[in-house]
Amino acid sequence: MTLTNRPNLPAPDRAALTVLGIESSCDDTAAAVIRHAPPAPAQILSSVVWGQTELHAGFGGVVPEIAARAHAEKLDHAVEAALTQAGVTFTDLDAIAVTAGPGLIGGVLSGVMLARGISAATGLPLLGVNHLAGHALTPRLTDTIAFPYLMLLVSGGHCQFLLVSGADDFTRLGGTIDDAPGEAFDKVAKLLALPQPGGPSVEAAARSGDPKRFTLPRPLMDRPGCDMSFSGLKTAVLRTRDALVAAHGGLRESDRADLCASFQAAVADVLSGKARRALALYMAEHPAQPVFAVAGGVAANATLRGALDHVAQQAGARFLAPPLALCTDNAAMIAWAGLEQIRAGTPAPQDFVARPRWPLDKTAAPLLGAGKKGAKS
């Protein structure tokens, strides 16, 4: 899908900007309106997020075709609701920002098609936004911090340490070479017969568990660098579960809770250990007022947040985590990323495509391989 003949974007120094954001990269249909009038902080005038948990509950995960159809049915209503909540109309907007990737291509196309239609009907300029950039720039929406800062982007499909130096300037310091933590949480939940999405289910079960009962691996901690691995940890949970079932004729609730707690502790240790290394690299080059931020759906996990906050305090860095509503997928972050592009004066391409893959650091070697569709991460 290529978009052409877009109107010119507003001037970067415009006193006030109001941007509509549209997000549909996975299973959350979202629209939001952001207003920014420096020197005041940005305002989230509205943020509408409609999940699809019930639609996918019987399948053990997100079904791309079902997700795409749901987006196509609800996106226009989400935009209408966001405009109504914000108390604005299309004539009050300066631009539209839409997730153009990465994500499930059917959902991404649904959002891009709607945004293209609105742009054509209203004459509003259109910005294609990298979904990951939306997460990575969220700390500037919530806390107006300066560049550069260290970001751990940790979600269902991605996990990477990024040096964020500008609205379109990201340097990857390390990332997962296989499963992302959110994916591992989902798979562990499925192994333990817990409902999806797996992250909240595992976290809830872990609250009553003993994190020290089972000795699970901390992959790649014996190797230098900031790369991570979570596939082997997931396999270790599977083997432990099978041993418990064989020993007791089934999985007891106490076993399930202890296994969830032990798994969550292992993830926290890996993220914390690699965060120390990433902070050392970042602070060696940028020692003044260092900031370590975390974003993405897995950042909603209180145990992981606490562990990362502790690491930041030990290193002497400020720790930032967005409000829970801005951790998971939302359109406010997409609107803000588009607004950041405008403020930065980033040249707007005359066309962009909906992309299932779209790495933030365009110079780094792919962590997870690449094919005809491009680098995965």
UniProtKB/TrEMBL annotation:
Where in the cell? Cytoplasm
- Lineage, top-rank taxon, reads Bacteria
Every copy of the Gcp-like domain together lies at 43-336
Keyword Ribonucleoprotein found: no
- The positions annotated for binding substrate are 153-157, 186, 199, 203, 301
Q: Name one Pfam family in it.
A: TsaD
Q: Which GO terms describe its cellular component?
A: cytoplasm
Q: Where are the transmembrane segments?
A: none
**Reported function:** Required for the formation of a threonylcarbamoyl group on adenosine at position 37 (t(6)A37) in tRNAs that read codons beginning with adenine. Is involved in the transfer of the threonylcarbamoyl moiety of threonylcarbamoyl-AMP (TC-AMP) to the N6 group of A37, together with TsaE and TsaB. TsaD likely plays a direct catalytic role in this reaction.
Protein name as catalogued = tRNA N6-adenosine threonylcarbamoyltransferase
Query: Which organism is the protein's source?
Result: Roseinatronobacter monicus
Provide the taxonomic classification. Answer: Bacteria, Pseudomonadati, Pseudomonadota, Alphaproteobacteria, Rhodobacterales
